[in-house]
Amino acid sequence: MQCPDPTTAAEQLTDQDITRAVELLFLTKKGVTSQLLEVGTRDGIVELAGLTNNLLARERAEAIAKEVRGVRGVVNTIVVRTQPVSDAELLRAVRQTLQDHAVTADYPIQCQVQQGAVMVTGTVRSWAEQQLALQLLKGIRGVQQVHDQLLVQPQPGQPPAHLLPRLRALLEWDVRLKSDLVSLRRDNATVHVSGTVGTPAEREQVIGLAYAAGAAHVEADNLAVADWARDKQLRLQRFVPKADADIERAVRDVLHLDARVQPFAATVIVNVRHGQVTLFGTVGHLLAHDAAAQDAGNVIGVVAVQNLLQIRAHYLAPDAVTRQQVAAALARDAYVGHYAFLVAVHDGKVRLDGTVPSYANQARAAEVAAGIRGVAAVENYVAVQQAPRPGQLFHVPEPDAALAERIRSHFFWSARLHDQEINVQVRDGQVTLSGTADTRLDREQAAEEALLCGAREVRNHLHLAYAP
Q1: CATH number, domain with residue 138
Q2: Mean pLDDT on 66-77
Q3: CA within 20 to 30 Å of 135's CA: 106, 159, 236, 242, which one?
Q4: What is the pTM of this model?
């Protein structure tokens, strides 16, 4: 698909343009079966219909649409239809998933299954724990619905009066938010959010942060989405250099809100020098190790993260047990469960081998393996072998010019990347990115977009536009 002239104003993007853009992104983005989905757009509201074979793919399709320029909202009527799985078999898979996972193994939650629908009950300590458990359940093959009956138990030492200051700090320091035009009001444990953000994805992020800060309910009917709120001039103040001490406090705050990291946050040492974050200390599993670095990178003012955290597993299992658990988790996964993998484990270090058709599947396999209790590291040797196009006996690499055009089109339609000075060059399938990105997160997203588009390798030479 040819992208419109980059000089075209956002207000001139037509519904037809947006529909074509969403369809284009569905072809390459992680976790979406594009040929079974229907896309329409009316007055900037994207309407999604059709079929998918798992709940995560349904949510992923909506998330992709919310990140497209010009989209004001998404109506999702996609139907989930999975291969038939008996209730008894699905219940075993659900229980095993929660039991083998590094984070949820100790959660006091219970599940029931009826005709592909999972009802989950019990008590968790935070909204973040609730969301993590729900996402795990949605990623199991055969799950068609998840009915959330989890009770979030308020934590001591977090009175409602502290809710708004905590939320304002989270909004101020979150690099994923590009608009400061948000107002907050509290009524006991209910937060009322109003104002304007630039994309539906930002709107969802604001609401999520309100719950993460401790809100029992969020009222966001008056939080609007408008193109003008994406204007770069409105967010330049967010890139003013920050004091290292302030960055350190912000990093500590977000680590305490991540369900994967929170149990070990007190043992994590954060050091910041000229915006470069170094993490020291110990955590209990690989997920916490990786999530801590990711969380730190999402803080405004952070230009680099060095992760020196050590993993001291609280759960030790024989390698044979870990290998069986990883293999079973891969087989249960809604995304990669139908691919064949070889799993080897030595001293808690997992090696994955196999072949998948996309970079997204390759990354998902490593993600699933990293979530198993007792896994200390994952070496991902899964190969990406793209399927041949219709009429071809084997895959023929596309011309470099076509790959470059597709990457540029992805950048053009990205609400985050479209107004950044990113140059794309391709030679023999190897992509070189040069120029500038606003944030570390944007820099990483640009490289991931190139891989999802089919790049054999990405050389990321992007510099941060607002680095100190």
Answers
A1: 3.30.1340.30
A2: 94
A3: 159
A4: 0.88
